[in-house]
Each structure stands twice: as structure tokens, then as C-alpha cells.
Fold this protein.
Amino acid sequence: MKSYEKLLQENKNWAQGKTTADPQYFDRLAHLQAPEFLWIGCSDSRVPANEITGTQPGEIFVHRNVANLVINTDVNLLSVLDYAVTHLKVKHVIVCGHYGCSGIKAAITNYDFKAVLNMWLRNIKDVYRIHRKELDAITDEEQKTDRLAELNVQEQVFNLAKTSIIQKAWKHEQRPDLHGWVYGLKDGIIKPVYEMKAGTHIDSLYEYDDL
Ligand SMILES: [Zn+2]
């Protein structure tokens, strides 16, 4: 059996198991999607949103990209955000990074990853620049990348708050709260590192009127 065929076989087994345990399972899910959470996580295969939070299909709306970035020209991310916030009306948006993130490590080097990856990783270099004083003072490389992973999720939470999508929902519906978390590959524990409640004022330069 080829490796990808095993995935299809496992899928059949999983669906069978679900139906056996609860005959209405798929029927119910097919008719309703009302997740309370939007998860913006890293694409890393070791950080599966549902599994590490003990949640089931239907509970978390998920977007993943390299190093969990929120970039204001990323149509993919913004579409997911708009749909989750404006239409699904999620109550919480979670940016979850992880320690030992390859994207974070790569951004600290001077290696030329060529056009597209350089462009993406540049955003993490910007986060480093903002916090250069603190990060430069950390001599241990692993500690430095781990701290940058924390500062990165904090910065991505700020980026969420700068969008009119979030500001509009804050103004009219007092939701969603924004959370910055970092997952530990070594112990499986998620550490909350930053939180921004709905309605928090940010630098007025970024606040829109007429929302
Ligand atoms: Zn990662």
C-alpha cells in the first residue's frame, strides 16, 4: 500500500468508528458550523489545532501558515478572518505559535531563501527589529528563538487589532477577544503569552472611524 493510500484507508476506519459511536455524527456536522474559535497557527505538522486542544470537528475554524503571521495584504488570511468574525461570529481569535519554529529560526539567519520565502520571513525580521534590544541580549540561540516566537504572536495579535474587520466587531458586538499563545513541542503545553480583550484601544493612528 502506498503512503497516501494508507491515509484513505485510515479515513474510512475513522468515519466508520465515528458512525458506530454516534450514528447522527456526520448528519449533525453537515448541517451546522458554529465554532467559537478562530485559530491562526503555524503550518508545522507537529501542531495540529484540534488534537492539542482536545476539540472536535466543528469547534475551531482554522487558518495556518508558516510562522502564524497576520499580514495586512494576505487575502487568504483576511478572507478567513472576515468570514470567521463577520459571519461565523467567533468569540475568540487565537494566534498560536510554537517553540522550535523553523520559520522563526530561519528569519534570524542571513541565509538567502530566495524570493518568496525571503518575502514571507521578512515580516518576522521586522518583529525582531522592534524588539532588537531585548533579543540581542539573549546569548543562548534556542532561548532567543523561543522568545522571538512569543514576541511574534504578540505582534500578530497587534496586527489583528489593526484590521477594520476586528475593530468593527469590537465596536458593534464587543467581541472577539484576541489571544497570543505559544505551544511547546517538547512538553505539549500551550503557554498564553498575550491577551487583548475586545474593545482595547490601540495606537490611535490605527483606529478607524465610521466603522
Ligand atoms: Zn512553525
Q: What stands out?
A: The first strand starts at residue 37 and ends at 42. The two ends are 55 Å apart (CA to CA). The CA atoms of residues 135 and 144 lie 6 Å apart.
